[in-house]
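To close the chapter, one final illustration. This time we ask the reader to focus less on the individual chains and more on the assembly as a whole: which components sit near each other, and how the overall shape emerges from the parts.
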Amino acid sequence: MAIEERYKTGDTPWDIGKPDFNLVETVAQQPIQSCRVLDIGCGTGDNSIWLARNNFHVVGTDTSDIAIERAKMKASGADVICDFRVVNFLTDEIEDTPFGFIFDRGCFHLIDSIDDRKRFVRNVASHLEGKGLWLTIAGNADEHRMIPGPPQRTAADIVLAVEECFEVLSLTSSRFGSNHPNPPRAWRCLMQRRGSR
Ligand SMILES: C[S@@+](CC[C@H](N)C(=O)[O-])C[C@H]1O[C@@H](n2cnc3c(N)ncnc32)[C@H](O)[C@@H]1O
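The assembled structure is written out below.
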């Protein structure tokens, strides 16, 4: 089912109503200082809103009109400022780059082909400042499961796609932030853009 349809019907298990702990821990542990941040595939905005509450200047983008509408309503209800936009990250221009930090939870992992993953990665790099950071939270193929869940990627899928443009700072086997007792396994991958500009 297309993602817009899933937002319509409420079939959105990723939409947990709170920031993912993998983001919260990474920002605290690195630490990642307040800067301009891009949340790619931001969904209904819980991670973006948490970042804005913690003094980041947030642009949140998603292809789903419904998700962006909900994100705007949540931000307004929470009294925080986020710049939410309907943008297809693979095809559309994002103005006012660069960003100091890029985050995605469950967007990069949707891409099946290595060529498209590399295209996505180059696009991330081109939106980042010199030594900017990218944190991706992606489904982890080391989990053998019998029930539906998020797309799963191997560590090699991630590293092969990113290494041309990014130095991997950490690649940790984790779980998705969730409201369920046994959440799907995830990769938490923090990367730094290569080179300077
Ligand atoms: C699994 S959901 C995760 C949403 C959100 N990050 C969260 O954690 O709740 C993936 C999101 O990526 C969005 N998406 C998929 N492809 C995209 C693209 N090319 N550009 C921007 N957003 C995209 C989908 O509409 C969806 O909202």
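Helices lie at 3-9, 21-29, 46-53, 65-78, 114-126, 155-162. The domain at 13-193 is CATH 3.40.50.150 (Rossmann fold). With these observations in hand, you are ready for the problems at the end of the chapter.
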